[in-house]
């Protein structure tokens, strides 16, 4: 066997053994990254390709292995055509990679953030709902930002004012100086994260957000850190969270509640289709844009469904499903239970189970099944059935246990125009406007609590700073 950059005609006299294989190296004018196209049963790349619907984007050496017998049988001209077709496939695969996978290698995820469509299950089949306008617009904006900004830091942004308060720090309204585009910047103090033993939580949130993009979740655009803080740069939503509006109005109409439920279901459907359980669905984590569409945020305690999470009771007690409260294995139905609690609260004016702490709420859940009584004023029987079935304590009997399509196809949601809602082509039944600057909203934001000195001293250690390695996204 001999390798050469000569033509096939030059290689023919060198062939003596009938079983020999000639390795022809092609010196292409461009570098190609492609999936193997030899289609041999013994080829590891091809067998992996056959077992997956995604294209393998691992870079391969630019070589083609051809049997000598095949050369003698087909002739040089035919083989030159074969090589030409292989190069054409390489070009096509490269274009496909750049168009649909953003040039990222080995990005194997169903309904990924770079896809231009998402899926909703219908009664007979899955139907594709276009997100082309949203995805293309966001992709162009992101690429423009990345081209103009090489290094992201605090100095990249102009801090306008505080719009929220989290467990680890403030949320700011900021403006990127070069592009003049506004974002929400979540500033998290490392010392607080360490003192609350939440390093895994913040790292997990960043990891999940960098693989997700959807019109009904709060998407991440950048992530960076300095010695004292972590920073997440997110979509700016100026309508305030659902908790603020519940405190302001106490109750909503049934039609408004249905609209909110549909927004939440679109966000949950996207997360669940990517194997993610949110596990902390509550009014504080649902934020309005100025047009009245709800967006889901805070993936700090979200987990992949494949992980064993029986002993993990993270979440907020008032919205925590019974199986989580009792430290049992749990899955997507915990999010549907929380949806039922939120709908109960915005229609009735209080949560189904109330208590001063987790133990009191747990005892109430175990003592009695909460439900809305038939005939409750201003609530239809279909809405009552929908909420009561979401609040069932046993997850096996809960609406949605067999899949989110059970919820989508409930009679209360019959007639919902999911495609128009997904593309935000319909008008919300509740318009909050831009409220992040008004005094009532600002009064909700409490002052910073002091950080313990020993926690601050920890940040001087390299071993502590290494806990946040990889906290970067651009």
From TrEMBL:
Record's keyword annotation contains Transferase: yes
Annotated ranges, domain Protein kinase: 157-413
InterPro entries from the UniProt entry: AGC-kinase_C (IPR000961), Kinase-like_dom_sf (IPR011009), Prot_kinase_dom (IPR000719), Protein_kinase_ATP_BS (IPR017441), Ser/Thr_kinase_AS (IPR008271), Ser_Thr_kinase_AGC (IPR050236)
Annotated catalysed reactions: L-threonyl-[protein] + ATP = O-phospho-L-threonyl-[protein] + ADP + H(+); L-seryl-[protein] + ATP = O-phospho-L-seryl-[protein] + ADP + H(+)
Keyword Transferase annotated: yes
Listed EC numbers: 2.7.11.1
Tree of life domain: Eukaryota
Record: residues binding ATP: 186
Single biological process term from Gene Ontology: intracellular signal transduction
GO molecular function (one): protein serine/threonine kinase activity
Enzyme kind, highest EC tier: transferase
Record key words, sorted: ATP-binding, Kinase, Nucleotide-binding, Serine/threonine-protein kinase, Transferase
Domain AGC-kinase C-terminal: 414-474
Entry similarity comment: Belongs to the protein kinase superfamily.
Protein name, UniProt field: non-specific serine/threonine protein kinase
């Amino acid at each position: 066997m001999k390798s050469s950059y000569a033509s096939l005609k030059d290689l023919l006299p060198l062939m003596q053994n009938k079983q020999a294989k000639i390795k022809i190296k092609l010196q292409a004018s461009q570098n190609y990254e492609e999936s193997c196209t030899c289609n041999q049963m013994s080829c590891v790349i091809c067998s992996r390709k056959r077992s997956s619907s995604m294209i393998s984007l691992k870079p391969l050496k630019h070589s083609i292995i051809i049997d000598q017998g095949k050369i003698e049988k087909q002739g040089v001209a035919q083989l030159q055509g074969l090589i030409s077709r292989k190069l054409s496939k390489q070009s096509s695969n490269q274009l496909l990679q750049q168009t649909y996978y953003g040039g990222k290698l080995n990005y194997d995820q169903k309904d990924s953030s770079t896809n231009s469509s998402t899926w909703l299950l219908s009664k007979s089949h899955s139907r594709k709902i276009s997100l082309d306008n949203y995805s293309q617009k966001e992709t162009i904006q992101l690429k423009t930002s990345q081209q103009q900004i090489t290094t992201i830091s605090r100095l990249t942004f102009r801090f306008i004012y505080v719009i929220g308060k989290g467990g680890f720090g403030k949320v700011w309204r900021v403006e990127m100086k070069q592009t003049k585009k506004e974002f929400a910047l979540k500033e998290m103090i490392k010392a607080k994260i360490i003192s609350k033993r939440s390093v895994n939580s913040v790292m997990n949130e960043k990891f999940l957000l960098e693989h997700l993009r959807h019109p009904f979740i709060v998407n991440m655009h950048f992530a960076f850190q300095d010695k004292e803080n972590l920073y997440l740069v997110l979509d700016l939503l100026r309508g305030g969270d659902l908790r603020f509006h519940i405190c302001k109005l106490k109750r909503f109409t049934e039609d408004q509640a249905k609209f909110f439920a549909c927004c939440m279901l679109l966000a949950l459907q996207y997360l669940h289709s990517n194997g993610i359980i949110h596990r902390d669905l509550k009014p504080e984590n649902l934020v309005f844009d100025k047009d009245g569409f709800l967006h889901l945020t805070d993936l700090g305690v979200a987990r992949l469904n494949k992980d064993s999470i029986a002993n993990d009771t993270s979440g907020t007690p008032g919205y925590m499903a019974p199986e989580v409260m009792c430290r049992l294995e749990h899955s997507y139905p915990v999010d549907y239970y929380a949806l039922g609690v939120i709908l109960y609260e915005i229609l009735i004016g209080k949560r189904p189970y109330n208590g001063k702490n987790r133990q009191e709420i747990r005892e109430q859940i175990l003592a009695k099944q909460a439900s809305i009584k038939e005939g409750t004023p201003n609530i239809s029987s279909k809405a009552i059935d929908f909420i009561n079935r979401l609040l069932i304590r046993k997850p096996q009997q809960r609406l949605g246990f067999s899949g989110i399509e059970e919820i989508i196809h409930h009679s209360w949601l019959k007639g919902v125009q999911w495609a128009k809602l997904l593309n935000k082509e319909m008008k919300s039944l509740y318009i909050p406007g831009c409220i992040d600057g008004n005094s009532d909203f600002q009064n909700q934001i409490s002052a910073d609590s002091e950080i313990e000195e020993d926690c601050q001293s920890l940040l001087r250690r390299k071993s502590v700073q290494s806990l946040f390695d990889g906290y970067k996204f651009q």
